[in-house]
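User: Assemble these into one structure.

Assistant: Restating your components, then the assembled model:
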Amino acid sequence: MNASIDQLYVQLTGFLDQEQVTQNETVRDLHSKDESYHTPSLPDLVVYPRSTDEVSRIVKAAGSLNVPVIPFGVGSSLEGHVIPYDHGITIDFTEMNQIIEVNPSDMLVTVQPGVTRSVLNKELKKHGLFFSVDPGADATLGGMAATNASGTTSVKYGVMRDQVRDLEVVLADGTVIHTGNKAAKSSSGYHLNGLFVGSEGTLGCFTELTLRVFGIPEVTTAARATFTSITNAIEAVPAILQAGIPIARVELVDTESIRQVNAYSETDYAELPTLFLEFHGNEAGLAQDVAFTEEIVTDFGCKEILFETETASRNRLWEARHNAAYAYTHGFPGKQMMLTDVCVPISKLAEAVVFAREELDRTGLEGGIVGHVGDGNFHVLLMIDHENEEELKTADEYNETIVRRALACGGTCTGEHGVGVGKQKYQRDEHGEAYDVMLKIKHVLDPDNVLNPGKLIK
Amino acid sequence: MNASIDQLYVQLTGFLDQEQVTQNETVRDLHSKDESYHTPSLPDLVVYPRSTDEVSRIVKAAGSLNVPVIPFGVGSSLEGHVIPYDHGITIDFTEMNQIIEVNPSDMLVTVQPGVTRSVLNKELKKHGLFFSVDPGADATLGGMAATNASGTTSVKYGVMRDQVRDLEVVLADGTVIHTGNKAAKSSSGYHLNGLFVGSEGTLGCFTELTLRVFGIPEVTTAARATFTSITNAIEAVPAILQAGIPIARVELVDTESIRQVNAYSETDYAELPTLFLEFHGNEAGLAQDVAFTEEIVTDFGCKEILFETETASRNRLWEARHNAAYAYTHGFPGKQMMLTDVCVPISKLAEAVVFAREELDRTGLEGGIVGHVGDGNFHVLLMIDHENEEELKTADEYNETIVRRALACGGTCTGEHGVGVGKQKYQRDEHGEAYDVMLKIKHVLDPDNVLNPGKLIK
């Protein structure tokens, strides 16, 4: 440990309990990585604050010694967001995990950043409410706001940014601000909610979040629709959206991924390109939506559509979908996953996915494709041997090919995983001179580059 | 005209046609005001660019001479946003009024900033699509994005910020950036879309907008529900929302405003607190929504609910609602309107509106209340004699009383009209130290304070 860290340790233990600050090797190791393939790197200290005031004092102390600060939820990020490449301190928000208020009248909830979405949903259920963003992982809400997470339900309910009504944020100098308020809309001042959501810990640490929640729909129906061609499956989706059907989930799972799912989840789904669908609504409206969707998918060559109305079988279906990533990990022992994450205009999606599959076959890499196709967002799940430099290089190049094509058709290098360290090399190309605006904002709000340095922007 | 303006005139006419730059007194007068009660002030020049490149050169030329630049749509702003208090040049976007692309597959449209929403909707109708934001006035889309406009349909479809997928923006130094892309979602870089929408011309001039559009719903039904008490009318609204009814419009019109509407629009609506409602959906689902809403409003003491399913009668109903402001102007000849615009958490709305009415009665000012109550946003329409300093002072103080109460309960000083010059005095109180973050962003992006100086922030 260098002198600054020693000094910081003394300062921190001056106002925190001994057990809130640790240099323990195992704990540091747990905070050296996320769920991605990016190389781990150890923090010097891990700190567990219990209040906004403590976070403010921690950030201020670290800032005055020029020690990097990395906020950490459960470490489920996918582009190395929480890896302390410049070392410094990791602030673990595990102990700031209170649901502060559930407000059914305003359909709002206020939480500390360490609350996970499953804990929140369990509490909300008592009030007939639910929190809509579902990225698969049981991430913390602070982390989900930091990366602008989304997932399977965004096509109807929007992404994380759409749910954030207010953030309490500790800035680089320890100042505590609120980015919004509790009203449903506002045209007052610059929109700081939008700026801070997705800022990946580079502009501040979130210490409290006020989020929009929704009423649990009267009826929920899920379905699996199989197609003989992946192009047909994808092209059915804009037709469903244009018909004004308020589809709640529409997920593509390609043949290879269905195969992995069957092996892992002991399902016997037809091994064909499949759309997993979910409808939310009132009974009469949903019945009409379902019937109309059946007509549309039939027009697009759907081979079979099977409905799941029972909660248990519906849950099994979505569990199988969410377990697709684990299924691959299980199916390719010794290999690790690399995920692509582009999002393209939906009119370009079919050709982008077909291209991704063709390129994948060309490289000889193992993997499959799943996608939040209602948003034009898809992932190639690549199974690679990280010890094999050649394979890693091929996978990196493949990822780049997919990104370049997405950018060329008006899309983005990351639909939902964020930039972290993995997508930095595309930022200038994607944003052009707007990247300079981002750099200016970072520099003016964090002049000493203390907050999660080297992530998102540099 | 001072020397800088002379010099700028020479520079501008070097690359613009003579008729694109004017010092004409009448034209300048038309650009000296908006639809608000704020005191007019003349620009030195009015410029009519025809391309992004021209806007870039205009802004760059003005910036190099430290001459203020004020972007102007149709001048329907309500807080003095377009009034050139520091003089300088007004950029009128009238000639940049092309619909560049309608893209039904991606449910997107790309327009120049001078396109008005009625022109856009006329074109979209051919494709079975519509643009959802309806602030009443036939504003330009550039202006609507600049103020984060909303209105009657936001409860279902969201505000202007929710529709903006990409902006082309000319920055203070003439650089042209894009703030987003054409994908439905992105976690790449800082969210500049959100930051620039609602920036009121203080961070850049918008030269192109890519906006989300929606399919025209299968069925639309409107209704008028009358209540014996304004509190009951308002309290029915969160009950409707919590029931998960995807109501498309829910507007409060108080007794006084119904009286004005009847006099102006020759309607014979019952002179009682009224909710104007609209439902969008499929036939079966909407019927169920309507029946459920009837039950709910009945529970809240609704006296009568009348439905309008025919397009003509539905349009008449919304025309009457939208004409409420004109009705007042007509009903109080010689007086001018001042509008309050707070937005509060919906659970606080009933008491906020009752308070506003009581305070209004106490002051003796003439006026009434209308509101986008699904969002917790309401306006007091005050009719005042601007020559009467005492009355103007009373109205200002009244406006302040309403704002202070909104801020005290977690609301905002402006739900949709924006800050302009009228709501500046509340910015520090509303945003606290977050206001310093806004100031830093303004200063780093417009260091010489050339872009719409004195608006939103200063």
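Chain A has a mean pLDDT of 96.
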